[in-house]
Amino acid sequence: MEQPVRIAYLIFAHKNPDQLGRLLGKLYYPGCLFYIHVDAKSNVKPFALAASQVPSASVIWLTKRTPVSWGDFSLSAAYLNGFQTILQKRPEPDFIITLSGQDYPIVTNQALHNWLANHIDQTILDYDVVTEDSLHLIERVDRYYLSIKPHRTIVYPYPNPQDFKKRLFNVTLRLSGLFSLPRQFPMGHQMYFGTNWFQVKPVIARYLVEFARSNPSYIKFAHTTFVPEEFFFQTILLNAPDAIRNTLYNHRMTFMQWDRPDGSYTKPISVGELPDMLNSGKFFARKFDETVDSEVLDRLDQYLTGVTPF
């Protein structure tokens, strides 16, 4: 019998411990490993209790925990730390799949393994080149985003300052000489954009870790950008040597709020979206919140056992 694809799931959780346990139970198969990063601002004990429904040997709790704040480099740093931990384990997995605790599979484990087996030499991530017309993306890197405390960021140069204090702020930082303008990617890199939910080969994870270690100025630059996890990895890989670039498959395996016709990105997935989700051709979906709509997860469980959910 053919051996299943070896998967290391790198999962980032910060809320809803029971939902994480449910996710692990649905993904588990003998031989898979779950590497779980619990936000340093959260108590890990409820998550550990919820994870007890899968064998303890399959769960590795990342001890280097980062307090993640949306918009800054903290999540990207947690990714790199997670990759380092996974790469120390032998045998290496065939794929490292990144998920959040609010993701959920929408196909069976067998379907996922069959698809990955057909792409066994590829890293699967979505990407687009960022052009001068993509102003909403360029502005993530062409100014400084300075974190002064959690969830509090100041921007330089402050766009269109309307009052004296903001104009003074711009002038003061300009005269300091510490924040040169215009900003450009280090190493002359072309910027690429994509999601941070991907399926990477260990060789690619190792390249990312070693690149970050060897290029501290690149990391310093990324620390003062906005939502870097949505361009940091793609930009490094798409500017890499051909031996790396040629293994990348431009594809997204996750159904996301971006796929909604009405463009409402923030509200969790609801049961009414099941038809679109299950007809999307994707393998995972996000994001779910059992405290808002648990029925959609119940219906997905039925679907994955052969029951029509709608």
TrEMBL record:
Q: Does the keyword rRNA-binding apply?
A: no
Q: How does it sit in the membrane?
A: Single-pass type II membrane protein
**Domain of life, per the record?**
Bacteria
Q: Which GO terms describe its biological process?
A: chondroitin sulfate proteoglycan biosynthetic process; heparan sulfate proteoglycan biosynthetic process
Q: Name one GO cellular component term.
A: membrane
Concerning InterPro entries, the annotation shows:
Glyco_trans_14 (IPR003406), XYLT (IPR043538)
Q: Keyword set for this entry?
A: Disulfide bond, Endoplasmic reticulum, Glycoprotein, Glycosyltransferase, Golgi apparatus, Membrane, Metal-binding, Signal-anchor, Transferase, Transmembrane, Transmembrane helix
Pfam families under this entry?
Branch (PF02485)
Q: Which GO terms describe its molecular function?
A: metal ion binding; protein xylosyltransferase activity
Q: Where in the cell is it found?
A: Endoplasmic reticulum membrane; Golgi apparatus membrane
What coarse category fits the chief subcellular location reported for this protein?
Answer: endoplasmic reticulum
How is this protein named in the record? Peptide O-xylosyltransferase
| Species in which this protein is naturally found | Spirosoma endophyticum
Q: Lineage from the top down?
A: Bacteria, Pseudomonadati, Bacteroidota, Cytophagia, Cytophagales
